[in-house]
Amino acid sequence: MRPYSQVLERLRASGLRPTRQRLALAKLLFDKGDRHVTAEILHAEAMSANIRVSLATVYNTLHQFTAAKLLREIVVDSSRSYFDTNTDPHHHFYFEDSGRLADIPGDQVVVAEVPSPPAGTTIESVEVVIRLAEEAA
Amino acid sequence: MRPYSQVLERLRASGLRPTRQRLALAKLLFDKGDRHVTAEILHAEAMSANIRVSLATVYNTLHQFTAAKLLREIVVDSSRSYFDTNTDPHHHFYFEDSGRLADIPGDQVVVAEVPSPPAGTTIESVEVVIRLAEEAA
DNA sequence: GTGTTTGCAAAGTGTTTGCAATTTA
DNA sequence: TAAATTGCAAACACTTTGCAAACAC
Predict the structure, then answer these.
(1) Residue ranges of the alpha helices (H) in chain A?
(2) Which conformational region is residue A3 in: left (phi greater than 0), alpha (psi within -120 to 50 degrees), or beta?
(3) Which of A57, B1, B2, B74 has the fewest CB atoms within 10 Å distance of its CB?
C-alpha cells in the first residue's frame, strides 16, 4: 500500500505541482488499498465525489502518476487502459466477462526459467495474465 | 505450422465460404510459418500482393479465423490488436520500441504453481509477455 | 434464386492535443 | 508575473457497422 500522505512528496519529487485535481485523484486512488482503474472509472468516481475534473485531466494525471511510478499500467484489453495502484511486481487475473482485474496474491505465480532476452535488448517486465471465464467448467 | 491446404476444410467446417478474399488472406497468413500481424499490416501486404481487399474485410476475416481457431489474438498493446498464426499455447517477447512481437521458443518459459481460479471461474489461458527495451543495459 | 459476403463510407470508442483561461509558486 | 495546469472541443487512431452491390452455392 502507498499511503496518501506519501503522495505529496512524490509529486514534488517528480516536479508535479500538488494541484486540487491531482490531490483529489490521488486520494481516490490511494486511500482504499490496491485498485485497478480505467480513466473512465476514475472520472466517474470523481464526479460522484463532487470533484470537478475533466476527463482529459484524468488521463493526464494517470500518465503522470505512472511516469512518477505511483501507478503501473496493465495491458489486458486492446480497447481500454488499466492502471494499478500496486507497483510491486505481481501478476493478474482478468475476468473477461466483466472486465474486472485482480491481483494474484503473493507468490502464487512463479515464472521459472525466464529466457535470456534477445541480443541488444533488456527485459522491462515479465507479466502474467490469467484470463478467466465466469461460470464453472 | 498450419499448412494452407488445411485451411479450406477448416473454413468449410466453420461454415465460412472459401471466398477469394478469405483464401488470399489465408495464403498470406499461413504460407510463411509463424506470424504476428495486425489488421493494418495484413491489409498492406494484401495490397502489395495485388489482392483487392478492403480493410473492413481484413478485420472481419481476422475475427472469423480467430473464432475458427485458425488464429489466436494476443493483447500486448492497448491501441492495436495482434493475431498469431501459432494457436498452440506459448508465450511472447514484445519489443516495445518497434511494436514487434515474437514467440518465446519451446519451453523457455515455465509458469510453475498456477493458482487455482477463483470460485465460479475457469482458466481460459495463461499468458506471459516479456516486455523488452531495445539497447543494452 | 437465396443467403452470404464484400466494400464503402459513416459512426463509434477510447485517447490525445491545441489553446485560451486559470491556477500555482 | 512567469511557468505549469486545466478544461473544452476538436482531432486522432483503430475498429465496427449499415447497407446496397456482388458473389457463392
Answers:
(1) 4-13, 20-30, 39-48, 55-67
(2) beta
(3) B1
A48/A26 Cα distance (integer angstroms):
15
CB contact under 8 A, B96 and A124: yes
| CB-facing half-sphere around the CA of A13: CA atoms within 13 A | 10
Distance (Å, whole) CA B78 – CA B22: 27
Among chain A residues 29-48, those with CB within 7 Å of any atom of strand D: none
Residue B85 CA to residue B66 CA, distance in Å, equals: 9
Per-residue model confidence as pLDDT tens digits over A72-129: 999 999 999 999 999 999 999 999 999 999 999 877 888 888 889 999 999 999 999 9
**Strand D reaches within 7 A of the B18 CB:** yes
- A102 close to B117: Cβ distance less than 8 angstroms: no
The DSSP output letter for A41 is H
What is the model's pTM?
Answer: 0.92
B94 — pLDDT class (breaks 50, 70, 90): very high
- Domains of chain B (ranges, CATH numbers): 5-83 (1.10.10.10), 88-132 (no CATH)
CB within 7 A of strand D (chain A, 46-105): 52-54, 56-57, 60-61, 78
